[in-house]
Q: What sequence folds into this?
């Protein structure tokens, strides 16, 4: 499966989804003009990846300094897709990475975690 | 000179306005003004949370203008690159808290929908707002809505006073809508 690589801009994060390494990274800020348009290829890649037969653990790393409310909705969608995959037996570990000085990002991570039942979701503060 | 910029400048200073943007808004102007705003808050030594909250309120408000302002500029009807007109004002209250205002034209027929969306949230407690935010985040988007419908709830969550807004009739077709959020200085 081909790697999904999107360079970061002021309002969109760096995205690197690597099927071979089983590492999905989203890093930077997210407040695009059109959230649906920006994340459509990301969601499509993810659905495709999860439909493959893969038994080893996939690491999903989010390191987001700031995201707007419409991005928040898309992130929830991503976590729901991952949660469904976990219920079906996939091994996935989400790491929500944030700077200790960014209380907002830490709280946002906690609010996602509260809404997830099966998906392992670690908040890593450095 | 017909236009006294000094009078405008003095008025802005007197009202403790840090930054004022009026006119066509595009994603590029949002990113540019937003990053200048962040640098300004950094120099003022606003705390990290305050800085991010002011920036985030600015983004939610001006992206609303981009999605909903009834005043548009475009060459053709189907032009995807249209510009929307709005006003954004950021400054601080006497006690040091930051205010973030935004305004734009709206169609009169949209007034009930706009007032309802604000009235529904403006008196809720922070816990109730959190629940509503989470519930709305998992809901399918409303038909005709370009955003997630979370912006107003997010504003109410961040504001230290209940959201203030006004709708002033311009003519039979349009009114001017403005909204104010106050972010505490930590």
A:
């Amino acid at each position: 499966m081909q790697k999904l690589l999107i360079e970061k801009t002021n309002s969109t994060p760096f995205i690197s989804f690597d099927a071979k390494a089983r590492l999905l990274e989203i890093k930077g800020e997210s407040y695009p003009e059109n959230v649906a348009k920006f994340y459509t290829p990301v969601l499509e890649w993810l659905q495709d990846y999860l439909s493959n037969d893969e038994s080893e653990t996939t690491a999903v790393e989010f390191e987001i300094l700031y995201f707007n409310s419409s991005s928040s909705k898309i992130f929830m969608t991503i976590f729901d897709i991952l949660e469904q995959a976990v219920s079906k037996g996939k091994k996935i570990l989400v790491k929500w990475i944030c700077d200790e000085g960014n209380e907002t990002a830490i709280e946002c991570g906690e609010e996602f975690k509260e809404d997830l039942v099966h998906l392992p979701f670690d908040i890593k503060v450095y | 000179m017909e236009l006294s910029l000094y009078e405008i400048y003095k008025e802005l200073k007197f009202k403790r306005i840090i930054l004022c943007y009026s006119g066509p808004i595009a994603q590029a102007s949002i990113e540019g003004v937003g990053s200048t705003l962040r640098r300004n808050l950094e120099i003022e030594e606003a705390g990290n949370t305050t800085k991010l909250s002011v920036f985030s309120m600015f983004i939610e408000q001006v992206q609303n203008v981009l999605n909903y302002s009834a005043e548009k500029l475009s060459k053709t009807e189907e032009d995807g690159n249209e510009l929307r007109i709005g006003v954004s004002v950021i400054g601080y209250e006497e006690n040091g808290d930051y205010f973030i205002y935004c305004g734009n034209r709206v169609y009169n027929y949209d007034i009930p929908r706009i007032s309802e969306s604000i009235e529904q949230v403006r008196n809720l407690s922070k816990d109730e707002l959190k629940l509503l935010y989470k519930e709305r985040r998992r809901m399918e988007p409303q038909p005709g809505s370009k955003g997630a419908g979370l912006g107003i709830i997010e504003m109410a969550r961040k504001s230290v006073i209940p959201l203030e807004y006004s709708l002033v009739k311009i003519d039979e077709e349009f009114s001017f809508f403005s909204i104010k959020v106050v972010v505490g200085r930590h």
In short: Chain A has one domain: 4-125. Chain A is about 35% helix and 30% strand.
